[in-house]
Amino acid sequence: MSTRHAALVALEHYRLVPVVVLDDASDVPALGAGLVAGGLPVAEVTFRTAAARDAIAALADRGDVLVGAGTVLTPAQVDAAVAAGARFVVSPGTSRAVVERCLEHGVPAIPGAVTATEVMATLELGLDLVKFFPAATSGGAPALATLATVFAGVHFVPTGGIAAGNLADYLTLPAVAAVGGSWMVPRDRVRARDTAAIERLARAAVAAADAVRPRAGQPA
Ligand code: 3PG
After folding, report:
1. Taking the C-alpha atoms of 109, 204, 29 and 83 in order, what is their torsion angle to the nearest 10 degrees?
2. CA 70 – ligand 1 centroid, Å
3. Is residue 69 in some structural domain?
4. Is the CB–ligand 1 distance for residue 122 below 6 Å?
5. Would you say residue 127 has pLDDT above 90?
6. Nearest residue by C-alpha to atom 9 in ligand 1
7. Does the beta carbon of 10 lie inside 6 Å of ligand 1?
8. What's the number of domains the chain is made of?
């Protein structure tokens, strides 16, 4: 198993991973301010837009947000993300090349897996934290609970189709390290630089998570 990385300890502390699609890196100050004010200084910036690299750099420069890269599909994107300051790398599926490049950089990889075979592929790569994606359409919390019974020591970040209404279904599962989703950072609110809305959504998500599982430990 891999050594516990500080970024993973911090993710598990916050228990929530806002998944952000940024159209313009100049939207980052409003986003960062909202997340920090809402008590959730975490962001997974997805490589679905050309702004991802600059947005990661701008968030990392703040120094008060745990920033990672999402939707990372290639080793080149790993290089770009890490150079920009990403402290963790998330992928929708499991790519050996992506994971190995992360390991070379010493940055934790969180690849996607929804079947036993896929989880076993991540075990072969020495990992013990995987993204359960797309969560809702892969059987949701009941499927994840069943999958987790055969993988002692593996923890999951369910993402995809999760929002305030079903957050608790996932966060009550002991094998869930954190829950990811875009509901905390809607693309249109980010684009509108609506710091107040982002703060409100982040604060509500933290309160909902606190009701299920109080924060443990210290953020790294
Ligand atoms: C991701 O990249 O993790 C997902 O697109 C997030 O899914 P959601 O928008 O349903 O939260």
Report:
1. 0
2. 10
3. yes
4. no
5. yes
6. 182
7. no
8. 1
Residue 150 has a CB neighbour count (10 Å cut-off) of 10
For helices 96-105 and 75-84, give the axis angle rounded to 10 degrees: 30
Is pTM, for the whole model, over 0.85? Answer: yes
Distance CA(18)–CA(66), nearest Å, equals 11
pLDDT band for position 172 (cuts 50, 70, 90): very high
Is residue 71 within 6 Å of ligand 1 at its C-beta? yes
Other Cβ atoms less than 10 A from the Cβ of 54: the count is: 16
Domain range holding 157?
6-211
Alpha-carbon gap, residue 95 to 117, rounded angstroms: 14
Q: From CA 41, how far away is CA 64, in angstroms rounded?
A: 7
Give 166 Cα–ligand 1 centroid separation in angstroms: 14
- Indicate which atom in ligand 1 lies nearest the CA of residue 46: 2
Domain CATH code at residue 127: 3.20.20.70
Q: Are 1 and 26 in contact (CB under 8 A)?
A: no
The CB of 38 under 6 Å from ligand 1? The reply is no
